[in-house]
Amino acid sequence: MLNISAFLGMATMYVRYKQVYALNPEKSKILKLNKTGLTVGLMSCFGLCIIANFQKCILYYIHVVGACLTFGVGAIYMLVQTILSYLMQPEVHSKDIFWIRLTLLLWCSSSIVSMFVSSVVLYSGLYGTNLVQKLHWDSQEKGYTAHIISTVSEWSLAFSFLSFFLTYIRDFQKISLRAVVSLHGQTLRNTPQSFVADDQALLIAGSI
C-alpha cells in the first residue's frame, strides 16, 4: 500500500512541477525552485518505498533512513512549495492558499520536533534496551508516555503531509495533461523501404 502511495505521490509532484513550469516560463528563480522541489519530492517518495519494504522491527536503521528521507526531505518539499506559493501570489496563487500551506508546514515541523524528541528519550536507554522489537505496551510500563507521544506525532506528521497534498485539488482542476502520439509510419515492422530510408539518412549525415 505504501509503495502505491509513493507512486501516486511521485505522479502528483510531477503534475505540480509541470503546472508551475507552465505558469512561470520566464521566471528563473521560480523555475529553479520548482526543479529543486521536484528533486526533493522524488527523494521523499523513495524514502516511503524504503519504509514500505524494510520493517522497523527487522532492519531498524534502514527503516530510520527511509523515515528521514520521507519526513525530513518531505518537509523540505513542503517548504519549497510554500515559498513558490508566496512568490506566485497574488498573480497566480491567492494569499489564502499560501497561508494554508504555511500553516500546514508549521504543523509538519512541530510534529517532526515532537516525534524526534520523544524518540530520542524513548530509545536513550532510560527505559530499557531492545525497545525496537517491542510491539505491545502496557500503560503502567516505563516509557509508555514517550511511546504514545512518538506514535501520535508520527500520525500527526502523516496527516500534515496528506493535508498539504489536498491543497493541490483546486490547482489541478485548472490543468489537463495529455500524451500526444506521433507516428513515423503505418507499421511497426522494419520494411525494406525503411532500411533504404535509414541508409539514406546515414549517407546524408556522413556527408555533412
Short description:
Helices cover 71% and strands 0% of the residues. The chain contains seven helices and no strands.
- With helices defined by DSSP (H or I, 4 residues minimum), what is the helix count? 7
Fraction of residues in helix? over 70%
Largest sheet: none
Work out the number of β strands.
0
The parts where pLDDT drops under 50 for at least 5 residues are: 202-208
Structural class call reads mainly alpha
What does this structure look like?
With 208 residues, the chain is mainly alpha-helical. 71% of the residues lie in helices and 0% in strands. It has helices spanning 2-23, 28-53, 60-88, 95-122, 144-166, 169-172, 192-207. Helix 1 (2-23) runs antiparallel to helix 2 (28-53). Residues 202-208 have low confidence and may be disordered.
Explain the layout of strands and helices:
Elements: H1 2-23, H2 28-53, H3 60-88, H4 95-122, H5 144-166, H6 169-172, H7 192-207
List keywords for this structure.
7 helices; 208 residues; mainly alpha; disordered C terminus
